[in-house]
Amino acid sequence: MRETGEKEASVRAIIEELCVDGRKKPRELIPFLQKVQARLGYVPAEVLREAAGVFGVPEVEMYAVATFYHQFRLQPPGEHRIKVCLGTACHLMGGQRILDWFGRRLDVREGQTTADGKFTLERVACVGCCALAPVVVVDEKVEGKVSPTRADGILLSLGVKPEAMKPKQPESA
Ligand code: FES
After folding, report:
1. Cystine design at 89: which of 15, 57, 107, 133 (Cβ 3.0–4.6 Å)?
2. Is the omega angle on the peptide bond into residue 134 within 30 degrees of 0, that is, cis?
3. How far is CA 66 from CA 11, 19, 73, 87, 141, in A?
4. Does residue 3 carry a pLDDT above 60?
5. C-alpha span between 55 and 61 (Å, rounded)
6. For residue 119, what are the β-bridge partners?
7. Which stretches of 44-108 are DSSP H helices?
8. What's residue 81's pLDDT?
9. pLDDT tier, 42 (very low <50, low <70, confident <90, very high otherwise)
10. In a mutational test of the pocket of ligand 1, which residue from 96, 130, 146 has the highest number of ligand atoms less than 8 Å from its CB?
11. What is the average pLDDT across 62-91?
12. Residue partners of 149: CB distance under 8 A and separation at least 6
């Protein structure tokens, strides 16, 4: 994870870059947000505030756009990103169950980061390994044919303690 100072410097650099470019058109907003997220891993509130003036739209509209599109994250990603594929093949092979399983184990919903900042749980579209469905991408590593038991193994390998994986509701492996 980046240091706070480094992040603040990146935010400032992006804002300065915007100001140099001058006023932007609202239709350039989504590509701009994509650029911010590609660079920082998320879209910080400071950027939305500053960019409202540059795009000539109210701040509330900046938030509305950023929260409407599923692709934008408004919080920094966790140390580890667990992306569960819900493309057609993975969905048919139980991808949703795996996503729910991780969610219960980590006590987060899709798109959220755990309170300790360790894990972000996301859904992704087909990652191109359909023969291995259901597929999970952990950081950049592809895990195929993931079962609930395998999901637990992944969490253990990432340092989650067994006692921390107590489910919030009844489950069956
Ligand atoms: S649908 Fe999941 S890898 Fe293709």
Report:
1. 133
2. yes
3. 16, 20, 8, 23, 28
4. no
5. 10
6. 80
7. 45-55, 59-68, 88-92, 95-106
8. 94
9. confident
10. 130
11. 92
12. 173
